[in-house]
């Protein structure tokens, strides 16, 4: 018996306008200055910088370039850090905590300038982000955060009381929220395609469907075995994030791939979109396992995403959960059809901070924790400068010790369904408290 079809297509909505286009096959170089594992946002950004500095550099991807999270994400330029400021301070000290928050602003500004100066046609829209709160306590907490961002970092951020909420989002589910105007949206698959275009034009070689099998020290450099044969590389950069496999076991024990799923509605009437998303903002929530959603770049659909606790196959339940969430937010969409539903892997680590680090000569740039649209290009670019010894240009708050390894973990995230259910239970308790 076949499962019911929840949406018309099980492929990313983004692939309609920007289908995956693997680059032309190129000969495998026997020797390289730098070999990059992964050709998503991070790998291509690093390769672009290295190629423009005259290095011989090639990126190897086990799939088509961008087939992973780079063309499957929501396209929100949040650059968010999951731990709050107090947690960052407790874990890393006040100096690094403030540097991490400040770097978010710098990373977004870098991304926007990069899109503009490189002429990347990726439907970037600087529309701002609304964050919805559940209950008065959460509203007060995120309002204080917005105030701190405005005072300390000069970010245009402010609280929106419940009485004014409908000016920003057409739902009564939240009890107020906050706005940040330094966050926008783009078309993630177009962004990757454009990044690939400029990287190839700059001299980066990209090998599609050519997985790296092993990386071993060989004198002062590395012997990298790929599916197309061995390569001698003076340096190696690993940018695999949520698609890390057994070729890099040290990283695999530290990153957990977590499914993130998105649904897209059919085209909605202009008056419906104007009522539900009047400012066309990106939307997120104060829950630990909440939804993120946005209008499509053409303003005709709503795309809504969230964490998916499934691990294998493509089950129906996570799709229905997102649809239920959409209707809970916007009851008038109960009868709307879904055009697409898909998932991809984000990479989490134990402290939930993106990272550049070096281990036995290999440089790693990974762990974007669901905010890779901003962090992956930023971290990839800094990793490239680290490889070239450009101390000042490589400086970043994310270049420090590796993430801690996860006990009894070798790449199979058997524990994630229980973790996600635990977070959802905490969210339900918080919402119950907020409704008393």
UniProtKB/TrEMBL annotation:
Keywords: Oxidoreductase
Transmembrane segments: none
InterPro entries for this protein: FAD-dep_OxRdtase, FAD/NAD-bd_sf
Entry keyword annotation includes Oxidoreductase: yes
Domain FAD dependent oxidoreductase: 33-385
Coiled coil: none
A cellular-component GO term for this protein: cytoplasm
Listed GO MF terms: oxidoreductase activity
PANTHER family: FAD DEPENDENT OXIDOREDUCTASE DOMAIN-CONTAINING PROTEIN, SARCOSINE DEHYDROGENASE-RELATED
Stated name of the protein: Glycine/D-amino acid oxidase
């Amino acid at each position: 018996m076949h499962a019911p079809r929840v949406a018309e297509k099980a492929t990313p909505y983004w692939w309609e306008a920007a289908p995956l286009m693997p680059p032309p096959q190129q000969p495998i170089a026997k020797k390289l200055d730098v070999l990059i594992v992964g050709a998503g946002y991070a790998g291509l950004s690093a390769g672009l910088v290295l190629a423009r500095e005259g290095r011989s550099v090639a990126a190897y991807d086990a799939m088509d370039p961008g087939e992973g999270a780079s063309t499957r994400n929501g396209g929100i330029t949040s650059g968010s850090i999951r731990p709050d400021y107090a947690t960052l301070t407790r874990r890393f000290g006040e100096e690094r905590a403030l540097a991490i928050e400040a770097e978010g602003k710098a990373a977004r500004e870098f991304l926007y300038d990069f899109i503009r100066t490189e002429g990347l046609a990726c439907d970037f829209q600087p529309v701002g982000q609304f964050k919805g709160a559940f209950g008065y306590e959460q509203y007060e907490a995120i309002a204080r955060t917005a105030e701190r961002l405005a005072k300390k970092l000069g970010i245009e951020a402010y609280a929106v009381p419940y009485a004014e909420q409908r000016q920003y989002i057409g739902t009564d589910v939240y009890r107020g929220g906050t706005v940040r105007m330094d966050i926008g949206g783009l078309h993630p698959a177009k962004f990757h395609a454009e990044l690939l275009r400029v990287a190839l034009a700059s001299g980066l070689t990209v090998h599609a469907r050519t997985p790296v099998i092993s990386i071993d020290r060989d004198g002062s450099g590395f012997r990298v075995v790929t599916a197309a044969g061995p390569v001698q590389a003076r340096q190696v950069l690993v940018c695999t994030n949520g698609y890390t496999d057994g070729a890099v076991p040290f990283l695999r024990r530290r990153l957990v791939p977590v499914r993130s799923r998105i649904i897209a509605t059919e085209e909605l009437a202009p008056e419906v979109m104007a009522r539900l998303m009047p400012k066309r903002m990106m939307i997120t929530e104060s829950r630990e396992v909440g939804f993120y959603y946005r209008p499509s770049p053409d303003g005709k659909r709503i795309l809504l995403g969230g964490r998916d606790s499934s691990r294998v196959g493509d089950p129906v339940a996570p799709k229905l959960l997102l649809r239920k969430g959409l209707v809970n937010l916007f009851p008038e969409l109960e009868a709307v059809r879904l055009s697409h539903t898909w998932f991809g892997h984000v990479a989490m680590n134990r402290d939930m901070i993106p990272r550049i680090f070096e281990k036995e000569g290999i440089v790693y740039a990974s762990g974007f924790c669901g905010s890779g649209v901003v962090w992956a290009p930023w971290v990839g670019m800094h990793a490239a400068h680290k490889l070239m010894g450009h101390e000042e240009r490589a400086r970043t708050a994310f270049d420090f010790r590796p993430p801690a390894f996860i006990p009894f973990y070798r790449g199979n995230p058997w524990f994630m369904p229980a973790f996600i259910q635990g977070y959802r239970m905490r969210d339900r308790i918080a919402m119950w408290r907020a409704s008393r």
